[in-house]
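Form 7-S
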Amino acid sequence: MTPLLNVKDLRAYYGQVQALHGLSFSLNEGSLTTLLGANGAGKTTTLRAICNMVRSTGAIEFDGKPLNNKSTESIVRFGIAHVPQGRGTFTTMTVEENLQLGAITRTDKAISSDIERMYGYFPKLKERHTQQAGTLSGGEQQMLAVARALMLRPRLMLLDEPSFGLAPLVVRDLFQILGRINRDEKVSILVVEQNAQLALELADQAYVIETGRIVMSGAAKDIAQDENVRKSYLGY
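Output:
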């Protein structure tokens, strides 16, 4: 089976500084994969490289098609949605306007029904659909960022630290919803996360990255049960 996303020998740079040193990994269609590691390990850079937001070399293929040298806008149109750290919602626009903007690349007539579907996953957003995004709580803004990405109807969603700055109960609720989206919408997910324990509960595949190199990979349940891996790389 051809992987949905296939990354080979990925190297990324910020100016003269090399941040990634030959990463190779793949994701199958319908999978939920987590990329774990400490701050500065290269997790965020990996997502940015997939979206061509940093200078990189190596091979990146999506559904068998090369993404190298494609613009970020073209990559989005291929069916890859990126939810960056910090959420990136348009704070002066309402919840519903943010969702409509998420569908800006689409031309079909199902946008209204898709918005209602997003409200099904995130009822709080429906309660606040006329409220400016900047006045939402941190958890609600993260929900809006995920919902807006889903409005693209992506095949793959890249999530960068979705738990950052959120209360534990909010994080657990959000991760449960991500699991539903993966199952119900058949959206493949690659999530970068420092909450290793929760990410491993959610994911079926895991990669551990350290100083720009993958040092461990395998089934998430196996990674979670490896005491040496937990102590060395996951911090719990």
